[in-house]
Write a structure and sequence with these properties.
InterPro entries: ClpP/crotonase-like_dom_sf, Enoyl-CoA_hydra/iso. GO terms for molecular function: lyase activity. This protein has a single domain, classed as 2-enoyl-CoA Hydratase, Chain A, domain 1 (Alpha-Beta Complex). The protein starts with a strand and ends in a 5-residue tail after the last helix. It contains 11 helices and 9 strands. The chain is α/β, with parallel strands linked by helices. It is 47% helix and 16% strand.
Length: 249
């Protein structure tokens, strides 16, 4: 199953993405992910967001976008990403990300809106949108690194290892790949052991005091993506990406 949810007796719901070969999510998958996180029931205390395969998430499926006539896939990806990022942020319980391998573009959008991040020691993060003729996820990258570093990473398309994010506190810890699920579940259990009524209230309260409205901020970024598409720039850059056959390392 490309997207699966398993709920344990401890109240921890594990949501797993599995879209080979690189977890570049098609339009339908972004909406499915949004539905999974929006549909959290009263018996859920914590959500762990993880992935199978080579890496956590490689963003949107650009090949789907380029083989679709018109702008339906582009609009779908924009709406789907917005819905998924929003669902992570507004999930009524804390969301713990378990990141391995690459976390790029839309993956940063998901992780940046999570409440806690645990990463494998092979994990790295980046937003290659500039190289694709698009904008977006700077809102979420800014939740992982300081402002000037965010701008450097954004303008250059460079990646940053998870180990470097530990010093900023945006990644709780890095562990060997084979211990990632154990570490993420350990943190989730620590949260799940608290009174769920208090934790749910705390999640809502912390969102309420955030200095940046992440939903509105990301939507603002998306407007520039539409401008670049109307100008023909984005299509040109996506064609070059598909033609080069580039993929996360």
């Amino acid at each position: 199953m490309p997207l699966g949810t398993a709920l344990g007796d401890d109240g921890i719901a594990v949501v797993t993405m599995d879209y080979p070969p690189v977890n570049a999510l098609p339009v339908a998958a972004w909406f499915a992910l949004a539905d999974a996180l929006s549909g959290v029931g009263p018996d859920v205390r914590v959500v762990v967001l993880r992935a199978e395969g080579r890496g956590f998430n490689a963003g949107v499926d650009i090949k789907e976008m380029q083989r679709t006539e018109g702008f339906s896939a582009l609009l779908g990806a924009n709406k789907g990403c917005f819905a998924a990022f929003k669902a992570v942020y507004e999930c009524p319980v804390p969301v713990v990300a378990a990141v391995h391998g690459f976390c790029l573009g839309g993956g940063v959008g998901l992780v940046g809106n999570c409440d806690a991040v645990v990463a494998a020691d092979d994990a790295y993060f980046g937003v290659p949108e500039v190289d694709r003729g698009a904008l977006g996820a700077a809102t979420h990258l800014a939740r992982l690194v300081p402002q000037h570093l965010m701008r450097t990473l954004y303008f250059t398309g460079r990646t940053i290892p998870a180990s470097a994010l530990v010093q900023f506190g945006s990644v709780v810890e890095t562990v060997p790949r084979d211990r990632l699920d154990e570490a993420a579940l350990g943190l989730a259990r620590e949260i799940a052991a608290k009174d769920p009524r208090v934790i749910r209230a705390a999640k809502e309260a912390l969102n309420g005091i955030d200095p940046v409205d992440v939903n509105r901020s990301y939507r603002f970024e998306q407007g520039f993506t539409f401008e670049l598409n109307l100008a023909g720039v984005a299509d040109e850059r996506r064609d070059a990406f598909v033609g080069d056959g580039k993929a996360p390392r």
